[in-house]
Write a structure and sequence with these properties.
heterodimer, A: mainly alpha, 13 helices, globular, B: alpha+beta, Alpha-Beta Plaits, two-stranded antiparallel sheet, 2 helices, 4 strands, 12% strand, elongated
C-alpha cells in the first residue's frame, strides 16, 4: 500500500455527538412536577367522555357579556382602535396580573388556578411598553409592507466607479449589522411582555419583520455591488449595549429614539447619499419603516414619563442612562467603516472625501438636533445635559 | 362603498415639513374624511392634510411623535424650526456639489 500515513496527518476522533438528553430530562421532570394538574384535566375530561356526555359549559358567555356588544366597523375596516371600544376586552389594565396566553376579555377567571404561570412575562406595567400611537402604527405597518426581492430595481446598482461601489457596499455591510440588533431587541422583549399588551406585541412583531427585511435588503445590496465588506467593532459594542439595556424603556430609548433616529437621519438624507436609483428606493422604503420605530419609541418614552409614579426619579435614572447612551452612539459613529463611506458617498467620490466630511458635519447637526427634538416631544429635557457636541466631534473635514 | 363626508368649510389642521412619515396620523384620520395623505413624490415620505377634507377632529395630533401637526387657529404659523429645517441646509450644500468626476 502506498498510502502515506503519519501520526501528524491523522484526524482527531469525532467528539461526542451533541445530546439533548439533559434538556429532555429536565423537561420530563418539569412535566412530572405538574402531574397533578395534567391528571386532573385528563381524568375529568375522560370521565365525561366515557359517560357519553357533553359539557357545553363553554357556551355560557354571560360572564363577559357575550353578544351584548360588538365592535363597530369603521370606514377604514376593523382596526384595533375599533375593537378596543368594546368594554372589557378593550380595557387595558395599568398593571397586568395575567401571565398566561388567555386572551384579554376572555372568560379566564374560573380557570386561573389550573393555568400555568409564565414567569418570563415580567414587564407588567403598562407604562413600560405602551405608547398612544402603537395601534395606528401597527395598522400602518401592516398596510405598508414591501418586498426586498421584488420592489428594488436591482439591475440598477451596477456601473458605479470602484470608490463609490465600495463605499455603498461598506455602508450596506454596516447597516446589515445594525439591523440584526434592531430585530433582536424587540424579539428579546417580546417574550417578556404579557399577552394583555397584545397591541404592543403586535407592533413589535412588525418591527422584527421590518428589521428582517432591512438586513435582507442591505445584504442583497452589498452582494449585488461586489460583496460584503468590513464589520465594525465600535458599533458591535453599541449594539450589544442596546440589547443589554437595564429595562425595556431604556433599551427603547437607546434603540428607537437615539440609534434608529441616527439611521433615520441617514435615510432622510438618502437623496444625497444614494448614487443609484436602486439605493434611493432602498433608503426611501426603509425610511418609512424606521419612522414608525422612532415614532413608537418617542411616544413610548413620553407615556413612561407621563405615567410613572415617581417621575423625578425616573427622569434622573434616564438621564444617567442617556449620559452613557449618547457616548455609546458617538463612539460607534466615530468608526471609519461608518463615517468614511458616508462621506465618500456625500462628496461624490474618494477624492471629494473632505467635502463629504463637510456634508457629514451638517448631517451630524441634523441628527443631534432631531434627537433633542424627540426628547423634547417626550417631555425629557436633554438639551442642558446632552453629552454629544452639536458639531461633528472630529471637525468638518479630515485629511484623507 | 360609503360616500365621503361632504363639508362646507375647510379644516384647520396642517402638517409642517418636519414630518418623519411614520403614518400614525394617517391611520387615526377618520376613514370617511381621509384627509391625511402621503405627499406624492416626496422622498422623505411625508404626509399632508387636505384641508377641504379635514373635519377638525384632531385625532391625528396626539399620535405624532415630532409635534408636526398644528391647529392653525391656535398657531397660525406654517413653519417648523430646528433640525428638521437644517435638512434644507444640507440639501442646499449638496446642490453646490458638482458631478462625482469633478
Amino acid at each position: 500500500m502506498g498510502v502515506d500515513v503519519t501520526v501528524d496527518k491523522l484526524k482527531p476522533l469525532p467528539g461526542d455527538t451533541p445530546s439533548n438528553a439533559a434538556a429532555l430530562d429536565k423537561y420530563e421532570r418539569d412535566f412530572q412536577s405538574h402531574g397533578q394538574v395534567w391528571g386532573e384535566i385528563l381524568q375529568k375530561n375522560f370521565e365525561r367522555l366515557s359517560a357519553g356526555s357533553y359539557s357545553l359549559q363553554w357556551m355560557n358567555g354571560e360572564a363577559n357579556g357575550w353578544g351584548s356588544q360588538k365592535p363597530k366597523i369603521s370606514s377604514r375596516g376593523l382596526t384595533y382602535n375599533d375593537i378596543n371600544r368594546v368594554k372589557g376586552s378593550g380595557e387595558i389594565d395599568e398593571v397586568v396580573s395575567w401571565k398566561s396566553f388567555a386572551p384579554r376579555g376572555s372568560i379566564r377567571e374560573p380557570y386561573k388556578n389550573m393555568m400555568p404561570v409564565l414567569e418570563n412575562y415580567d414587564v407588567l406595567h403598562k407604562y413600560d411598553v405602551w405608547s398612544d400611537n402603537v395601534m395606528p402604527l401597527y395598522e400602518e405597518a401592516v398596510a405598508r409592507q414591501w418586498s426586498a426581492t421584488r420592489d428594488i430595481p436591482w439591475d440598477d446598482v451596477n456601473g458605479l466607479p470602484e470608490d463609490l461601489a465600495k463605499a455603498s457596499c461598506q455602508l450596506s455591510t454596516f447597516l446589515t449589522e445594525v439591523e440584526f440588533a434592531a430585530g433582536d431587541f424587540p424579539a428579546k422583549w417580546l417574550y417578556r411582555i404579557p399577552q394583555d399588551f397584545l397591541e404592543v406585541k403586535s407592533f413589535m412583531a412588525t418591527q422584527i419583520m421590518d428589521e428582517a427585511r432591512h438586513q435582507e435588503v442591505f445584504r442583497k445590496r452589498a452582494l449585488m455591488g461586489g460583496g460584503l465588506m468590513h464589520a465594525t467593532p465600535g458599533f458591535e459594542w453599541a449594539l450589544k449595549s442596546i440589547l443589554d439595556a437595564p429595562n425595556h424603556v431604556m433599551g427603547t430609548f437607546l434603540l428607537n429614539l437615539l440609534g434608529e433616529g441616527l439611521v433615520l437621519s441617514i435615510f432622510r438624507s438618502g437623496e444625497m447619499i444614494a448614487k443609484t436609483h436602486a439605493d434611493k428606493e432602498i433608503f426611501r422604503l426603509c425610511m418609512q419603516d424606521e419612522a414608525r420605530h422612532v415614532s413608537y419609541g418617542v411616544l413610548q418614552f413620553k407615556y413612561f414619563l407621563d405615567n410613572h409614579p415617581n417621575r423625578a426619579q425616573a427622569e434622573e435614572e434616564l438621564h444617567r442612562f442617556a449620559d452613557l447612551g449618547e457616548q455609546i452612539i458617538m463612539t460607534a459613529f466615530s468608526e471609519a467603516t461608518v463615517n468614511e463611506p458616508v462621506a465618500i458617498l456625500l462628496g461624490g467620490g474618494l477624492k471629494n472625501i473632505d467635502k463629504g466630511m463637510e456634508g457629514l458635519g451638517k448631517l451630524w447637526t441634523v441628527f443631534i438636533e432631531e434627537y433633542l427634538q424627540r426628547c423634547d416631544r417626550a417631555g425629557f429635557d436633554r438639551r442642558a445635559r446632552c453629552t454629544i457636541p452639536m458639531q461633528l466631534p472630529w471637525g468638518g473635514s479630515v485629511a484623507a | 362603498m360609503e360616500e365621503r363626508v361632504t363639508k362646507h368649510r375647510a379644516g384647520h389642521f396642517y402638517i409642517d415639513e418636519t414630518c418623519i412619515g411614520c403614518g400614525a396620523c394617517d391611520e387615526m384620520c377618520p376613514g370617511k374624511a381621509d384627509a391625511v395623505q402621503a405627499i406624492k413624490g416626496d422622498f422623505r415620505g411625508r404626509f399632508k392634510i387636505v384641508l377641504e377634507d379635514c373635519i377638525d377632529c384632531g385625532f391625528c395630533v396626539p399620535v405624532c411623535p415630532v409635534d408636526c401637526i398644528h391647529d392653525a387657529r391656535k398657531e397660525g404659523v406654517v413653519e417648523g424650526d430646528g433640525g428638521y429645517m437644517r435638512i434644507k441646509e444640507l440639501q442646499a450644500w449638496a446642490e453646490t456639489l458638482t458631478t462625482p468626476d469633478n
